[in-house]
Amino acid sequence: MAVGVLAGLVIGAIGTAERVRVAVDGTRARLRRGSTEREIGRSETRVVFVDGKDLVLLGADENELARQTSDLPADRLAKAFREHGWPWAEADPHREAYRRWVPGLPGLPAGADALLRARQEALEADRGDEARELRTELGRYGVVVRDEGKRQYWRLTRSALPPG
After folding, report:
1. How many helices (H) and strands (E) does the chain have?
2. What's this model's pTM, rounded to 2 decimal places?
3. How far apart are CA 136 and CA 141, in angstroms?
4. What is the pLDDT of residues 28-39, one digit of tens each?
5. Which residues, including other chains, have CB under 8 Å from residue 23's CB and lie 6 or more apart?
């Protein structure tokens, strides 16, 4: 019985350490998970919203400044951001712009298809850290990715869109 209690305490401590904490004021938002902390400035943020279980902050180029899975209630997040003057949206303002990724589909910047292919493999193998790293790399190409289960959907930022 003591081993069971000890195991429960260890699992509880790990869960608490991995919990996301969000601190927001009029000039910045800090997102902390475990020992990793990110800080995003209000001046660089165009809009904030919740997408499923993810808190998302978009920049002026419509790029993702942050996408962090959170178990915090959306209404509490909305209240905190609104109280400090952040632009809050009830849903992703670009939801209709996403397209389902299919290998070889035209419209992506050169090299992005290979990154999406590698990311798909990481998603299917439950390698979350690798999938997050590849999401960041895709962001450098101007590609924003959102997931539905193990399916990837993508859209381009303003600077990645072809002229016209």
Report:
1. 4, 9
2. 0.83
3. 9
4. 999 998 888 999
5. 29, 30, 32
